[in-house]
Amino acid sequence: MSGELRPLEQGSAIGIYACGPTVYSRIHIGNARPFVVFSLLARFLRSQGREARLVINVTDINDKIYAAAREAGKGSAELATEMTAAYVADTDRLGLGRPDAEPLASETIERIVALISELIEGGHAYESGGDVYFRVRSFPAYGELSNRRTEDMDQGEEAGTASLKEDPLDFALWKGHKEGEDTSWDSPWGPGRPGWHIECSAMAEEELGAAFELHGGGSDLLFPHHENEIAQSRAAGRPFAHSWMHNGMVETDAEKMSKTEGNVFQLSAALDRYGREAVVDYLISGHYRQPLAFGEEQLDQAAARVERIRNFLREHPASGAGGRDPFVEERRRAFDEALAEDFNTPRAMAEAFELIAEANRRELEGAPEALREMLAVLGLESLGEAGEGADAEAERLLAEREHARGERDFGRADAIRDQLAAMGWEVRDSAAGARLVRRG
Prior knowledge:
α1 (29-47) links the parallel β1 (14-18) and β2. The strands form four sheets. The chain has a four-stranded parallel beta sheet, sandwiched between helices. A four-stranded antiparallel beta sheet has the order 3-4-5-6. It has helices at 29-47, 63-72, 76-92, 109-121, 196-208, 222-235, 267-274, 276-283, 296-315, 326-340, 345-361, 367-377, 392-406, 410-422, and strands spanning 14-18, 52-56, 125-128, 131-134, 171-176, 192-194, 211-218, 240-247, 250-252, 255-256, 292-293, 425-430, 433-438. It is built from 14 helices and 13 strands. By secondary structure, the protein is α/β, with parallel strands linked by helices. The model has no long low-confidence stretch (mean pLDDT 91).
């Protein structure tokens, strides 16, 4: 709300709540950006000795899910379960671990209903025709987060039914069951389902308490989603989030990437093609607050960067000596300082590459060890493990491929390369021969 950088509170556990996906289809690489940003933020805080608890929710009740399920000829709950599993599988492949909690909207109904009831009792919400709406004008601070004028406010998909509302600004907290919807839950106002915004107020409080440090999500959620979360929670007497972090959108041709606009590159496809390290590197290659250009060129550049790191660590194994050159210590310290100042990942990675460049010019004691520490903070520690641990079957297939190439059976060689890729191995050809590199 201040538009300024604020220090994290000292001496306390840091609760981080980030808005996760609405699971009506497989997630795209733009959905992965907040997952990566906030997972790595929590990892960095822990590396600094801070206690951090990361919560990323899953919206598994939504109009978009109903529409997608009808189109697919499935039940909405079945589709939501299927796409939630796909989301977990795809983000697992990023290799960053899971959030500390991943609450589902469908499993938070009781708390949602209780919060809505409190808002009605306090005069901040009202029942109308089986729906429940929040009285926006009952909360004088409404609009401070997004800095919007009343005439510029549009509640979008959660606007509800205009004829049931006291004021066009009001938004739905509860939606009465409608024909064609195959799920509903009981409530004091009749069967129905929660609105989108109320679920996050309820889940954040359930997982992190009434007051917590950071609330995150994509910049497209600033209004109305996050504005409405503040209004709901604070109108109910909760302090809610101390600070807010909004990541910029992943964009193609200067347009926001979204599943509805069709300019989608699924995360699973990007991982298949480029591997986890290149995808993670790409997603942290720009400052989290800025839009991130998307395309093959950007991902190819990320792949080249991680290959440079792999090669350095392959050529500079850890010495185990324990000492560190002053230049190494300086880069290591600057790396942490970059992340401590508004989580500036591109500046942090620049420090890592400056270390690599200098270590390629002269002997730098402790450089590989320091680089590995830096990479671990940003989820790229596996770059130091490339080519290690190839199983016997992968090695056998590599030898078979080399034999096929020697026999000029290039069709067979290419087929084996594809087979190895499906097993998680990339074949790298060089003058010294072929080798296996573990993919993400």
